[in-house]
Amino acid sequence: MMQTFQQDCxxxxxxxxxxxxxxxxxxxxxxxxxxVLPAGSDAAAQAAQEMVMVNWGGVAxxxxxxxxxxxxxxxxxxxKVVQDSTGPSAGRIRSMVExxxxxxxxxxxxxxxxxxxxxxxxxxxxDYSVVQKSDVISPxxxxxxxxxxxxxxxxxxxxxxxxxxxxxxxxADFYDVQKFPGTRLLRRDALAVLxxxxxxxxxxxxxxxxxxxxxxxxxxxxxxxxCVFWTNGSESEQFMxxxxxxxxQIWHTRATILExxxxxxxxxxxxxxxxxxxxxVSPRGNPGGAMVQKLLASMLANPEPQVELLKFLGNxxxxxxxxxxxxxxxxxxxxxxxxxxxxxxxxxxxxWGENYAELNSKVLDVITG
Length: 369
Prior knowledge:
globular; 16 helices; D-Maltodextrin-Binding Protein, domain 2; Putative spermidine/putrescine transport system substrate-binding protein; 2 domains; alpha/beta; 369 residues; SBP
């Protein structure tokens, strides 16, 4: 009886596909859901001949499509890489995999999500016989369940007009409201915020982890009334642009926009910046199967597309050969330029993956308390 039902459903799905009412991707998802094709199987991959790369929207579709998808398709005739800007949150990935209806192949995620979802068995392991660890500048960018084809940093930005005698140069200065008065800007999140607090307490960036959480929370509590908090990148720009904050911790991509826009009045520094990998993960049961490993490998292996992404989106390259081909005018804004890396701290994604949920709740309590 079940086989007859499945056959009827399959015939209906195929008819809708032939009539153009569903696309190949939807057809494949339906067949996987019916159990006609096992999720992640070779048959599913062959039926698809397509992989979906999921990002967070905006111009990322164009950036990733042009610089990562297009070169892969040129090198692998018959395969198509499409962009989806749904927003690959850890919750969405979990729900998709646990429902047995995975339709995403590669997701722009984070180190902490790679740890959490990987431990739960919801991600494919990175096949390092295909993906090369030597194609990234740091072991932090080649994790068990994710790898980083781009990078970004959380940096200190300040309004030079408010500090004619010189602005803050580190996180200790950021926390010194007497020497550097004015409203501070922080993200409404534990990640990078507590790391900055730890450096403000005097701990060496070279030996930052594990964080002394009680001390960091107490440090944050000291300036809580002197802060405003952002939740997305555009909001962080606006707080600085309007003068509501005189300094802040924001992503370097947003700081770059502000520095260029204001001809240097709003200036950011790399010193004690928190360098992070833009970790991509592959949900378990992805329709493209093992081919996703080749896609990720190609994203890491080729420095030129990564440099083009730096020019277009501001995201830093992670391939160690990329620095040599970054044009001079972009080095100032490249988080992985050797001179900039030398003064930053690489955020420990493994430590954060094990502690994020608990610490984020505690930071939100401080912020709202």
